[in-house]
Structure to design on (734 residues):
C-alpha cells in the first residue's frame, strides 16, 4: 500500500551540491500553462542524460542533486549499459522500462560494495532530488515512474526506499514508501513496478515542488533503479485496488492464507471451530487517488472455472473521500466442489466510473487437485536454504512448508523445486515429512537420500516416502514437508548445504519453516519455499489443452514478419511434447494463436516459437526452451523472441562460426567471432533433441573451445545463441 506520512520540522541535511552538476539541453520537459485533462503531463524526464564530452559518459542536468550521505562515493548513477555487479553478475536497466535505451537512474549498492575484488558492507544512504517543479497552476498532482529493485537484508524494514516531497527546500517533507511494505530479500512484485502516487495534498498549487528518492537503511546489497519519471495532472475518478487477499478457510477461527493447489478430498468438511474447510473469501484495500469522492465503491469478484464464469460476488458499497483509504470484504465465501483451475477476477468499481481502469483489477488462482498439496505457485523467482541464519547453513539443516491434513489419507511422496547447487560441495538431500505432536515437530516418514547433480537443477524432483504399512496413513493434524540437505566444506567441519530450494516470491504467504541442526530448533522464515505433498488419490483430469498466444506486432512493424507470406508456429521439445503447431491470427491484431490438445497435466512443457521453421533465440540463459507446467486450464501469453526484432539492430552479431574437423572421429573445435562482446550459449544436441553439452560464455568477442571427445557416432547440431540470433551447424561424428 502507498503509505504517506508527514514530517513537519524534520530536516534532512542537504550539503552543498556535489560537483557533477552540468547543463545538458533538452533532457527534461516542463509543460507550460494549465492542462485540461487528467493524466496530462506537468513535467517529465526519461533520463536521456548521455554526454559523450564527459569522461563518465553522462552529465547531471542543472537543478538536480545527488548526495551520498555515507561519504563513500556510493551515490546514484546514470545506467544505460551493463554494470559489473560482482564476480559473476551484471546489472542492466530493467527489460520493462519503456525508454531503457536512453538510460535510467540506479543506486547499485552491491556494485559499490564489491570493488577491486573486495566485499564491503556499507549500507545504502544516498538520494537523488529533482529541480524545483512549478505546479502552481494545477489543482491535482500525481507522480508516475517505473521502478525495479532487489532489497536485502535480514535487518531491512519496509520504508528503506522512499520518495520524499518538499515544497520549501527540505524544511518539511511528505514521505511515501516505494517498497510498499515488501519484506527484505525480495525483488519488486509486478504490481509495484509501475507507480502512481497522488501528491495533491502536498504539491498542488505550489511553484517549488521537489521530489527526492532516498535509498537507505540496512541495505548493503542489490540495487534500486527507476525510469520515466513524470508529474501529471490527477484524474477526476481514480479508484485504486491497492491490495487484495484470497483467504483459504482452515476451519479454526479464520484463514490460513492463499493456497495455490489443494486436494478435493481435503475440502468441504465443517471446520473444527468455525467455517468450512477450503472455502475461499475475498477482501481488498482501496485508495481513492482521484479528485472526486468515489461513491458506492465496492469490490466485485468473478469466479471462473477452466476459463468459464460460474459465479460472481460483490462487497457492500461505501463512499471513499479523495485521497482516503478503505478496506472491504465480500461476505459470501466460495467453496469449489470439483477439480479444476479456478480464477478469481477482482475489480474495484464505483458509481463515478473510472479514468484509470488498469489499476482496478487483479486476478488470483486456485487449483483443486486430486493429490497435490502445494501452497506456492509453480514459478521460482529465486532459491533459499538456511544460509544467512545465525547458526545456519550447516549440513543437516532443513527447509519445510507446513500443511494441515483434514481427512484421513495415505501419503505417497514429497515434491520440491530444486533451484541450484554447488557441485564442489557434493550435496545430497532427503525429503522428510514432519508431524506436529503436542507442539513439537517430530520426524514422521522420510525418503531415501539422493545425490544432487546438474540433471536435477531447475527441476521438480519428486521422491517416494518409505512406507512401513502404518506411518504413511495420515490422520488429521499439522504436518510439514521438508528438504534436508547435506554438503561438504573443507573449511567447515559442520559442512554446508550446497543447494537451494525454489522460493515463490509472488505469493503473499510465508509458511516456510527452517530447521537449524546446530540448535535442533525450528523457526519461521517469512518465506514460501516450493515444497508440496502428494497423497494417494486419483480422479482429476490427466490431460488438458494448452492455448498459445504469441504477440508478433513488433516483428510485423519491423518487417521481420510478413503476415501474408510468413508462418509462425509453436514447437515442443521431444521430452514433453514432440510436435509443431502452426499459429493463426483470425482477427488480424498481430497476436497469433494455436491450441494443442491432450497434454499431460502436472507435467513440464518445454517449447519455443519459430518463424518459417527457424526457432527464436529467446531466452539467452538457462534452458534454451521456454517452460510451463501444464494445468487443467492453460492459456500462455508470450511475445516472440522476448520482443527483440531485427529492426532494432539488423547487424548480425555473429560474423563467423566455424567447426573443425567436420566430419570428426571424436573431438571437434568451435570458433566464434562476434562484432561486439556478448553473452552466448553454446549447446550440442543429438538427433533426438537431447542436449548433450551446454556452456554459457559471458561478454566475449572471440571464443574457441574443443568439445566432445567421447561422442557416439551420429549426427549432432551445434547451436550458438546470443539472445538475438541463433546459428546452427551440423556436426557428423564417424
Amino acid at each position: 500500500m502507498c503509505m504517506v506520512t508527514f514530517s513537519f520540522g524534520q530536516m534532512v541535511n542537504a550539503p552543498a551540491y556535489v560537483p557533477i552538476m552540468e547543463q545538458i539541453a533538452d533532457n527534461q520537459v516542463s509543460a507550460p500553462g494549465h492542462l485540461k485533462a487528467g493524466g496530462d503531463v506537468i513535467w517529465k524526464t526519461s533520463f536521456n542524460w548521455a554526454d559523450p564530452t564527459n569522461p563518465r559518459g553522462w552529465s547531471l542536468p542543472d537543478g538536480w542533486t545527488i548526495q551520498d550521505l555515507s561519504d563513500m562515493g556510493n551515490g546514484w548513477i546514470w545506467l544505460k549499459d551493463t554494470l559489473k555487479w560482482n564476480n559473476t553478475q551484471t546489472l542492466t536497466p530493467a527489460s520493462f522500462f519503456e525508454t531503457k535505451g536512453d538510460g535510467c537512474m540506479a543506486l547499485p549498492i552491491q556494485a559499490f560494495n564489491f570493488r577491486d575484488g573486495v566485499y564491503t558492507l556499507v549500507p545504502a544512504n544516498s538520494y537523488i532530488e529533482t529541480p524545483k517543479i512549478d505546479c502552481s497552476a494545477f489543482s491535482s498532482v500525481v507522480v508516475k515512474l517505473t521502478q525495479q529493485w532487489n532489497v536485502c537484508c535480514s535487518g531491512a524494514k519496509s520504508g528503506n526506499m522512499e520518495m520524499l516531497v518538499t515544497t520549501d527546500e527540505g524544511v518539511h517533507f511528505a514521505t511515501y514508501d516505494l517498497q510498499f511494505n515488501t519484506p527484505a530479500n525480495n525483488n519488486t512484485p509486478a504490481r509495484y513496478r509501475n507507480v502512481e502516487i497522488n501528491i495533491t495534498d502536498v504539491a498542488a498549487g505550489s511553484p517549488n515542488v521537489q521530489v527526492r528518492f532516498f535509498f537507505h537503511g540496512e541495505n548493503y546489497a542489490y540495487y534500486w533503479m527507476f525510469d520515466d519519471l513524470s508529474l501529471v495532472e490527477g484524474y477526476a475518478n481514480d479508484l485504486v485496488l491497492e491490495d487484495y487477499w484470497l483467504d483459504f478457510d482452515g476451519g479454526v477461527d479464520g484463514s490460513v492464507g492463499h493456497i495455490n493447489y489443494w486436494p478435493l478430498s481435503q475440502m468441504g468438511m465443517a471446520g473444527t471451530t468455525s467455517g468450512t474447510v477450503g472455502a475461499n473469501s475475498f477482501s481488498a484495500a482501496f485508495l481513492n487517488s482521484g479528485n472526486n469522492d468515489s461513491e458506492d465503491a465496492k469490490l466485485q469478484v468473478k469466479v471462473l472455472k477452466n476459463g468459464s464464469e460460474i459465479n460472481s460476488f460483490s462487497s457492500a458499497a461505501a463512499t471513499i473521500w479523495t485521497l482516503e483509504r478503505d478496506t472491504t470484504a465480500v461476505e459470501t465465501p466460495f467453496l469449489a466442489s470439483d477439480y479444476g483451475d479456478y480464477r478469481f477476477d477482482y475489480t474495484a468499481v464505483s458509481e463515478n466510473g473510472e479514468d484509470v481502469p488498469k489499476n482496478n483489477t487483479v486476478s488470483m488462482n486456485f487449483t483443486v487437485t486430486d493429490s497435490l498439496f502445494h501452497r506456492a505457485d509453480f514459478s521460482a523467482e529465486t532459491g533459499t536454504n538456511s544460509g544467512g541464519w545465525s547458526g545456519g547453513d550447516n549440513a543437516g539443516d532443513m527447509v519445510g512448508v507446513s500443511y494441515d491434513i483434514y481427512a484421513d489419507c495415505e501419503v505417497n511422496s514429497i515434491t520440491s523445486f530444486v533451484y541450484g547447487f554447488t557441485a564442489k560441495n557434493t550435496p545430497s538431500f532427503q525429503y522428510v515429512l514432519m508431524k506436529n505432536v503436542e507442539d513439537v515437530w517430530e520426524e514422521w516418514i522420510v525418503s531415501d537420500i539422493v545425490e544432487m547433480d546438474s540433471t536435477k537443477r531447475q527441476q521438480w524432483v519428486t521422491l517416494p516416502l518409505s512406507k512401513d504399512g502404518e506411518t504413511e496413513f495420515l490422520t488429521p493434524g499439522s504436518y510439514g514437508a521438508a528438504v534436508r540437505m547435506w554438503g561438504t566444506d573443507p573449511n567447515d567441519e559442520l559442512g554446508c548445504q550446497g543447494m537451494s530450494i525454489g522460493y515463490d516470491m509472488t505469493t503473499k504467504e510465508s509458511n516456510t519453516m527452517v530447521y537449524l541442526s546446530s540448535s535442533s530448533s525450528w523457526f519461521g522464515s517469512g518465506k514460501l519455499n516450493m515444497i508440496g505433498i502428494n497423497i494417494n488419490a486419483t480422479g482429476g483430469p490427466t490431460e488438458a489443452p494448452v492455448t498459445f498466444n504469441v504477440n508478433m506486432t513488433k516483428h510485423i512493424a519491423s518487417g521481420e514478419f510478413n503476415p501474408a507470406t510468413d508462418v509462425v508456429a509453436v514447437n515442443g521439445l521431444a521430452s514433453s511434447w514432440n510436435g509443431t503447431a502452426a499459429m493463426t491470427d483470425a482477427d488480424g491484431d498481430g497476436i497469433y494463436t494455436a491450441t494443442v490438445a491432450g497434454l499431460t497435466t502436472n507435467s513440464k512443457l518445454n517449447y519455443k516459437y519459430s518463424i518459417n521453421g527457424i526457432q527464436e533465440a529467446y531466452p539467452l540463459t538457462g534452458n534454451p526452451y521456454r517452460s510451463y507446467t501444464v494445468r487443467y486450464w492453460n492459456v500462455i501469453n508470450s511475445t516472440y523472441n522476448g520482443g527483440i526484432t531485427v529492426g532494432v539492430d539488423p547487424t548480425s552479431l555473429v560474423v563467423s562460426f566455424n567447426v573443425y574437423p567436420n566430419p570428426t572421429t571424436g573431438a571437434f573445435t568451435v570458433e566464434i567471432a562476434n562484432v561486439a562482446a556478448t553473452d552466448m550459449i553454446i549447446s550440442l544436441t543429438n538427433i533426438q533433441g537431447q542436449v548433450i553439452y551446454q556452456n554459457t560464455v559471458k561478454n566475449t568477442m572471440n571464443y574457441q573451445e574443443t568439445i566432445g571427445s567421447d561422442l557416439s557416432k551420429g549426427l549432432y547440431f551445434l547451436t550458438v545463441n546470443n539472445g538475438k540470433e541463433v546459428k546452427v551447424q551440423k556436426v557428423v561424428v564417424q
The longest helix spans residues 553-557. The chain has a mean pLDDT of 86. The two ends are 64 Å apart (CA to CA). The helical segments are 109-112, 200-203, 553-557.
